[in-house]
């Protein structure tokens, strides 16, 4: 349960936050680098770019090589090093856009399902840095919601997810103006969790979830009102999903 709780908390934070570690990273990096400014080196092999001693900002060609390496290798050591390098470079606004345009967000997002906990953490950190860019946020939300949906389909993970402490702004994902792709996923998340609770028998007993948990948000009146309001949504798929969920709220 602890693992699911941790992943759920970080995932929810990514959905809602703007990457607080960005400022810390920039401050510590500036202190370490002194006043050298940003330096671009000539292109080199992708694995060389993951060398811990490599401390310069990568250009588009180098980032493309790094993303290809991340997508093609199964070596956990190389994957982790590549994610660290990408995460560091994603702290710079120019690279946040380049990584998105190179299709890097889904590549990084896929690693949050990796069995290696350290790789998961490095992938989440990279996504957190990428989320500073407004244009990246929808793509990142979709990736993180994919993780939450995978977890929500497993009854053994349900309790851990529902114990996760989540900011109340999570409910803004159920607003009618939210992108259809995200709306369908958060509605499915509610549906999956509800189904798992029935399987586990939690709906028949007094829940032990604390205030501020995902359980209190999803099963509170505000969430119920938001879901009911979506029955008038312009999109037919969203309406259909809401009609399916309505008897359960």
TrEMBL record:
Main subcellular location: endoplasmic reticulum
Domain Armadillo repeat-containing: 58-142
Coiled coil ranges: none
InterPro entries: ARM-like (IPR011989), ARM-rpt_dom (IPR006911), ARM-type_fold (IPR016024), Armcx_regulator (IPR051303)
This protein's UniProt keywords: Endoplasmic reticulum, Growth regulation, Membrane, Mitochondrion, Mitochondrion outer membrane, Phosphoprotein, Transmembrane, Transmembrane helix
Entry's localization field: Endoplasmic reticulum membrane; Mitochondrion outer membrane
Parts of the chain that traverse the membrane: 6-25
Domain of life: Eukaryota
Recorded topology in the membrane: Single-pass membrane protein
Gene Ontology, cellular component aspect: endoplasmic reticulum membrane; mitochondrial outer membrane
Pfam families: Arm_2
Function: May play a role in cell survival and cell growth. May suppress the transcriptional activity of p53/TP53.
Subunit structure as annotated in this protein's UniProt entry: Interacts with the DNA-binding domain of p53/TP53.
Name of the protein described by the UniProt record: Armadillo repeat-containing protein 10
Gene: ARMC10
